[in-house]
Amino acid sequence: MLNIGKGLTRLQRLLEDFQRKDRRSLAKLITLIENDSPLKEEIIKKLHFTTKKARIIGFTGSPGAGKSSLIDRLVKTIRQRGETVGIIAVDPTSPFSGGAMLGDRIRMQEHALDEGVYIRSMGTRGNLGGLARSTKDVVKVLNAYGKDWIIVETVGVGQAELEIMNIASTTTLVLTPDSGDGIQTIKAGIMEIADIFAVNKCDLPGADRVATETEMMLDMQYHKKAWRPPVIMTSSVTGEGVNELLEAINEHHRYLQENNIYLSIQKEKAITEILDIISSYWQKLICQHLNGKSQVSFLLEKVANQKMDPYTAATKIIEILATPGSLNTAEGKKEMISDALS
Ligand SMILES: Nc1nc2c(ncn2[C@@H]2O[C@H](COP(=O)(O)OP(=O)(O)OP(=O)(O)O)[C@@H](O)[C@H]2O)c(=O)[nH]1
Ligand SMILES: [Mg+2]
Known about the structure:
- The chain is α/β, with parallel strands linked by helices.
- The protein has helices spanning 4-19, 23-34, 40-47, 67-80, 102-107, 131-145, 159-165, 188-193, 207-221, 242-258, 261-288, 295-304, 310-322, 330-340; strands at 55-61, 85-90, 117-122, 149-155, 170-175, 196-199, 231-233.
- It has a seven-stranded parallel sheet, sandwiched between helices.
- Helix 9 links the parallel strand 6 and strand 7 (231-233).
- Helix 1 crosses helix 2 (23-34).
- The longest helix is centred in the C-terminal third of the chain and has 28 residues, at 261-288.
- It is globular.
- The termini are close together.
- The model is unreliable at 327-342 (pLDDT under 50).
- The structure holds guanosine-5'-triphosphate (GTP) and magnesium ion.
- The site of magnesium ion has 6 residues, from helix 4 and helix 5.
């Protein structure tokens, strides 16, 4: 078992390798984040002040819509311009994490040997701090690594995906003519998060209809908004529309910058992130006091025995834990850190 000092020294070395753009250290840092390591806090603290320039963009849509294939096409164009990319493929339904998922590995294998492209898949397993939270932190690591572009792909249309997509500043919703992706079947939340609509597989019949329906829906909903999402027909097979898609992504970025929306989005993100950190701190603290003969567990017993209501107990617990000197988390933290790198 390592002691806290050794753990931090190794982290220091890892961060030095990272600054030298060593790919293995990048992978190691991401794994520590995925595992919700106690070193995560140190990592994020250190990386917060490094220069970041990445454009963070998201792709979402039904399974098999062609997100990975489309990203693959975009990456080719981005690489031709000499810019670098980090891709995070998030699948909340998959237990796999770490390397690329099989499908994505096959579709993006061409880039696997390219130093300028880093691909990482994330599933539910191992992401103890929550998938959306881990994804956010992995984006930070890739950004600090110096990537010009970070692309987040996520499958599906649920709450978890919405949260993940909030990380991106420009989100493309990928629709297709072959999966019954009628516009009426798409949930409201997903429609609202989309800044761009890509009607992919436009080499197949029915794409025109999907595009027309989408335009009609946008005409009804977006006439008052400053940014009206463009609808772009794409095909990852023929390459049609890929340049237009990239241009639309750039256009949206310019729109955010010129209208100062970018900065207010960053502020909103900071608030959400801090609230999230505070609430997980509290939860961790309270959990540390649940066992044993602490005042907290005494209060819990009272609630269980109907001698106190949960609201009064919660207020008292906050009072107890917020009193200076009442927290003794240093020991627990030391232990966790010493385990993290062993
Ligand atoms: N005809 C046609 N097929 C496509 C197109 N884009 C992707 N496909 C095919 O659609 C299938 C799914 O493509 P993926 O890129 O894996 O789709 P995905 O949305 O990333 O899939 P998941 O990550 O599994 O949700 C593959 O068989 C692709 O070859 C396209 O533009 N036209
Ligand atoms: Mg995919």
